[in-house]
Specification:
By secondary structure, this protein is an alpha/beta fold. Helices cover about 35% and strands about 15% of the residues. The protein contains six helices and five strands.
């Protein structure tokens, strides 16, 4: 079983990365091998709209034609049995780094044919991790739309979230007086470990009962 985890956040040891590590550990606990990729370490662009991935008989049909720091990662994602993707929420969306990755993963997988059947060779179980300092229901419509796309293009998808997260070690150093800092700190101590456990269980669940080759 092949497991690939994608960190769309800039940090490697804070909320998003910590939850992603938990999801990855849960998946790996069921057997298989994998790795965690930090997108901010890579040099790449989003989709450039060349449509080479849809050219009939084209050498890059069903694949992104761009050759850069994301090329190998995209191949690993397509080949994975379990794909874990994580991002903090920025301005009502995932980070630009993850958004660019998704453009180049999702767009080559679809055609403009009436059947709208994804082109990838097998289904992929996808687990998403989102962190935010907003209330839990704030992004419900966004999550619903993204899961619809993920279910269609990749395969069975689910997500785990951490909301009301702690952003700063010392809030007095920042223009951030809208927060009730004692409450934020208490939530981080009491709730965030539970959020990480939820991510762990999601990863474990996704990696259970997979027939290698993409059958779910």
């Amino acid at each position: 079983m092949k497991i690939l985890a994608i960190n769309g956040g800039a940090q490697k040891s804070r909320n998003t990365a910590t939850m992603l590590q938990s999801a990855f550990d849960g998946a790996v606990s069921q057997g298989g091998t994998g790795e965690i990729v930090h997108l901010y370490d890579l040099n790449y662009k989003g989709c450039v709209g060349c449509h080479a991935c849809k050219l009939k008989g084209g050498a890059s049909f069903g694949r992104c034609v761009q050759k850069d720091g994301l090329t190998e990662v995209l191949e690993k994602a397509i080949d994975a049995d379990v794909l874990l993707l994580a991002s903090p929420m920025y301005f009502n969306d995932v980070t630009g780094a993850l958004r660019s990755f998704l453009e180049r993963l999702f767009f080559p997988a679809i055609t403009y044919n009436k059947e709208r059947v994804p082109t990838y060779p097998h289904t992929i179980k996808a687990g998403w991790v989102f962190t935010m300092n907003a209330p839990g229901e704030f992004y419900d419509s966004f999550f619903k739309g993204l899961m619809n796309s993920s279910n269609w293009i990749l395969g069975h998808s689910e997500y785990a979230i951490a909301y009301g997260t702690k952003q700063f070690e010392d809030y007095t150093k920042y223009e951030a007086d809208m927060f009730d800092v004692p409450t934020v700190n208490q939530r981080h101590e009491e709730q965030f470990p539970k959020d990480c456990n939820e991510a762990y269980e999601m990863g474990k669940r996704l990696a259970t009962n997979i027939d290698i080759g993409g059958n779910i």
